[in-house]
Structures are given as structure tokens and as C-alpha cells.
Amino acid sequence: MTLISMFEEAIQHYGNRPALARKPKGGTYQDISYTEFGESVDAFSKGLSALGVQKDDRVAILSENCPEWAITDFGTLKTGAVTVPMFSTLTAAQVGYILKDSGAKIICVSTEKQLEKVASIRDEVPTLEQIIIFDSIEDEIPEGVTEFATVCELDGEETDAAANEDDIATIIYTSGTTGNPKGVMLTHANFISNVEACKSLIDVSETDVLLSFLPLSHVFERLGGHYVPLFSGAKIAYAESTFTVAQNMKEIAPTVMLSVPRLYETMHERILRAVQEGSPLKQKIFHWGVSVGSSVSSAIQQGKKPSAILRLQQSIADKLVFAKLKEATGGRLRFFVSGGAALPQSIAEFFHAAGILILEGYGLTETSPVISMNHPGKWKFGTVGAQVPGIEVQIAEDGEILTRGPHVMKGYFNNEAATAEVIDKDGWFHTGDIGIIDEDGFVKITDRKKNIIVLSNGKNVAPQPIESELVRSPFISQIMVVGSERKNLAALIVPNFDALKAWASENSVDTTDLPAMLQAREVKQHLQSEIRSRLTDFADFEQVRRFALLEKEFSQEADEMTPTLKLKRNVITERYSDAIEQMYPEDS
Q1: Does the global pTM surpass 0.90?
Q2: How far, in Å, CA of 63 to CA of 409, rounded?
Q3: Which of 253, 327, 345, 432 fits as disulfide partner to 332, beta carbons 3.0 to 4.6 Å?
Q4: In this structure, what DSSP letter does residue 451 have?
Q5: With 0-12 CB in 10 A as exposed, 13-18 as middle and 19+ as buried, what is 332?
């Protein structure tokens, strides 16, 4: 069994049913059937063969989500070659590093903008023979560049390389919060074991529609938003961009949707902002509706049936409070799936109160990716679910989560030393995450092992739970807790500028000068009070004693965040070293 054999079974079984959908500029969504999809994959595979692609060659993909991405993936696998997906937001230098490290023979790019990146570093990549561009080029086509449509017309040989389940299907480069990214080698068997495990827990069928907007270069979307739905007969519609997700949701009306927590947090923030701007009566109705929804949610979580009166109140709350939220998702949503980062429990509880279930899972690129997941038949907020079937999970003596099974990668490409550091002699993969398994078998993540802060008194502090709690504040947008080898904790805080300005204005603080406003005594006292009130359940050594307010957000463009929106703590620590030192004057 390989990804190609599963793909061909899906093509034969689902035939004329819609597989993919795209929205051209100024148009409406157009479907591509499974049959048409299969024909395009065959044509592209033959084209790659004509260009000299052979078994085990590497074909890189630098593109946003689109049908051509999916066709390239399966077309490459059909030749027996290996895909090397890259985030479309990478810089030219980052693209060059991955191309050189992987020894890519061909790269497929989406647009002329992506083509420019590759052209600028092409001379540095001796293995790169050809660039394929998905878009049509209006001017003269540069030497060594071929349009995707032209490749599909090349008269190559029928390709059906006999891939083995243990052959490498893809090399995915990790985001690299420290140092250069490493190429994770995932086999056909890795993916298939994970597909089958997920399909056994979540019922995805040909009646489902997914809106795909998370990068397909990320293993979470690759598995959950690409392979699982396509091998289940579902339809995948591609969002026009990350900025049009809200509009595309209304157009597509997805039944299932994958996202990172930031989408759910943003939706929650917009709802609360709209409520705050409403009349006192609307605010009272909203809070009543949330209270009713929370009571229903609590009963369901306890395995109880809500009372008749509560169900009646819920139907009223749905119409008065939650109807617009459900309408914004398209009105057909069965559930959301969250991954890639920790989902605040309060967000999951709010959405469930509104009648929308968010299922949080956990995994890494190195584990194909799913290790554990909540699913409709078994879920618990504040956890990342129970381990999926067919794998092993255990907690090491130091609290690190270990896993073993068919989902664990083959290793890091050209890096046996790094592979030996994470996969021990008994086959256990060391995730680098600290966590527990509760009495019901649910996994709960505490933090990344390397993020643990050791105070000067020897106390170990996991910053993630603290950050997750504080970012719930309407006045805090981003936060990074610091304090390694210090007496106590401090934090770099990016405030929610709109909310903070509104508060400042109401409290007679001048808002015309942002730096001055952030330094105002009243503003700092307000933030300190906000921090203190939200950390009442944390130990004394886990309290954030000091903080610095930053004038701009952490961003990927500034190299402060990875493409998966994880903080590059070492970069931020170095960049704001002066601000950190000023928070610890006694150490100077």
C-alpha cells in the first residue's frame, strides 16, 4: 500500500464526484472531479518523466495552496520521486538552503514572485535542472523555466514507478526555531498509518467539504486537509488567500475545517469586540446566551443530557446570540480541528457553548504528524486527546513525551547525528515536549522541554501555560515570558493596541504618542493588575513580576516567528536584550 495506490483507488471509486475546487479572480468556485484530477496527475507525471525525473529524485514545491500543488504532489509520487514542500513565505536564502540540502532536481513555483526568489539563488544550487511555474508567463519565458501546462503536454513515458511503502514520499523541512531547518524523511507507510488511524476516529466521507488555507507545506494540513479527505471522497476547496478565509467560508460552507488556534482566537476577539460596542441590553443577552451554552456544554462533558428547560433556553440562545457565528462559518460546520500550537481551553469552551466543537490534536512533523487527538466520540477540553490507534506513547522520567510506532519518521535527511539524538536505540522518538497522560488516557502538553525556564533558585517554570493564560486578556496580543537564571519571571508584551488605546482614552491618558502611552504610569499599573488577576491560580514563583511593552508585533517577516507562528525565543531574546536587562536592574 502506497499513497499512489490509495489515490488511484479513490479516483476509481469516486469518479465524477468533486475532488478539488478553486476560485478564479473575480469568479466563483469551480469544481474539479476525481476523474479530472487523476487525469491531470497522469499527465504531469508523464511530463516529469520527459524532463528526466526518476525514482528517488527530489521535486520541490514553492507555492500557495491550489490544485496544481495537489497535482504536483501526486504526480511526483507517481514517478517514484520525492516531494520537498516549502512555505511560500520563505525568503530566497531559506529556499536556497533547502534546495541545496535536499539536492532538488526540479522546483515547482506558483507565481513570478516565487520564480524571482529561485532565480536569485539558482546559481548556488548545482543540482537544480528545471523550474516549473504554475502561472502563465506573459513575457518571454526565461531559459530553464517551463510552464506547468506545457509540462502536462510533454510526451513522456507512462510512469508508474514501483514505489515501496518504505520508500521516502516527502522531505519536510522543520521550521527551525533554532539553527537551520532539518529535513524530515516521511515514508509512504508513515503517512498511510496516520491516515488510517485518523479515519478510524473521525468519520470523513464524500458528503464532506473542507476549506483549505493552512499551508500544504505543513504536515498538519498535508495529512488532515489533503490525504485524509481525498482518500475519503471529500471535496477540498482552496481559499483564495489567508485574508479571504472569512468570505470563502461563507461561499463554500465547509463541513470540516482545519486551522491553527490563531483563527479561533481572532474570531473570539471580534465577537467580544462587537459585544463591547453594543448596547447594555445586547451585552446582557450575549452573556446570558454564553451562560446557557456553557451549562449545556458542561452537561455534555459530564455525559449527561441537558434538561428540557435548558434545551429550550439553548434554542433561544442559538437564535439570539449564536446564529451569526454559525452563519459566518457557512452554516454546515460539523466541527473544527485545531493543531500546530496550543489551543487555549477557554476558546474551546466558548465555541462549544456556542454549539461549535473544536477538536484539538497533537503531533510533530517527525510523527507524520498525529500522536494523539480528540475526536467526536471522545474528547476533553484542555487536552490534546488520547493516543491514536496503532502507536505507543509514554512519559519519560523527566516528563518528556515519547512515542514509538509506524508513524515515526525514517530520520533526518543527510543528518544521522541529529536522528540519533531524537530516536533512541529502542525506537522511541523523543518529542521534546513535556506533558502528562491523565487517568482517562488523555494527553496534556505542558511546554517544550527546551523552553523550560530555570530560575536562579532552581525552580523549573513552563512558560506556555502562563503565556496562554495572559494572552486571554483583551489587552495582550502577544507575550513571551523570560527569566532564565533570574530570581523571578518577566515578560515581553505586545499589547492589543486598539483595546489599550480605548482604555487609555477612557482614563484620560494621552494616546497620540504611542511610545509615551506605553510608558504611562496608569497604563503600566492597569497591565500589572490585569496580569496579577489572571495568574491567581499559579504558584508564587510562576508570577510575572515585571514586563516591558513593545511597540510592534512579533512577526515572521522580522524573523521572530516561524512559518507556523511559533516564537523564535532565542531571536527575540537577543533582539530585546536591552529591554530584558532593564527589567532586572538588580542584576546589572
Answers
A1: no
A2: 24
A3: 253
A4: G
A5: middle
Of 163, 188, 218, which closes a domain? 163
For cell 489567508, name the residue: 242
β-partners of residue 436 are 444
Residue 86 resides in a domain: yes
Structurally, the chain folds into a number of domains equal to 2
Cell numbers for 412: 533526518
Of 385, 386, 317, the residue nearest 352 (C-alpha): 317
**Sheet bearing 18-22, strands edge to edge:** 30-33, 18-22, 235-238, 209-212, 256-259, 335-338, 358-363, 370-373, 386-387
Locate the DSSP E strands across 282-344: 335-338
CB 225 within 8 A of CB 216: yes
Residue 50 is part of which domain span? 41-163
Whether 489 and 542 have beta carbons less than 8 Å apart is answered as: yes
Looking at 135, 163, 191, the residue that finishes a domain is: 163
CA dist 414 to 8, 101, 171, 184, 564, Å? Answer: 32, 8, 11, 10, 24
**C-alpha to C-alpha distance for 35 and 16, rounded to whole angstroms:** 6
At 300 the three-state DSSP class reads helix
pLDDT in tens, the chain (588 residues): 899 999 999 999 999 999 999 999 889 999 999 999 999 999 999 999 999 999 999 999 999 999 999 999 999 999 999 999 999 988 899 999 999 999 999 999 999 999 999 999 999 999 999 999 999 988 888 899 999 999 999 987 776 566 899 999 999 998 765 568 899 999 999 999 999 999 999 999 999 999 999 999 999 999 999 999 999 999 999 999 989 999 999 999 999 999 988 889 889 988 988 898 899 999 999 999 999 999 999 999 999 999 999 999 999 999 999 999 999 999 999 999 999 888 889 999 999 999 999 999 999 999 999 999 999 999 999 999 999 999 999 999 989 999 999 999 999 999 999 999 999 999 999 999 999 999 999 999 988 888 889 888 888 898 988 998 999 899 999 999 999 989 999 999 999 999 999 999 999 999 999 999 999 999 999 999 999 999 998 989 999 999 999 999 999 889 898 877 788 898 999 999 999 999 998 765
Q: Compute the distance between CA of residue 121 and CA of residue 91 in angstroms, rounded to an integer.
A: 10
In a domain, 170, yes or no: no
Residue 115, domain CATH: 3.40.50.980
Residue 481 lies in a domain: yes
Note whether residue 365 is domain-resident: no
CATH of the domain at 458: 3.30.300.30
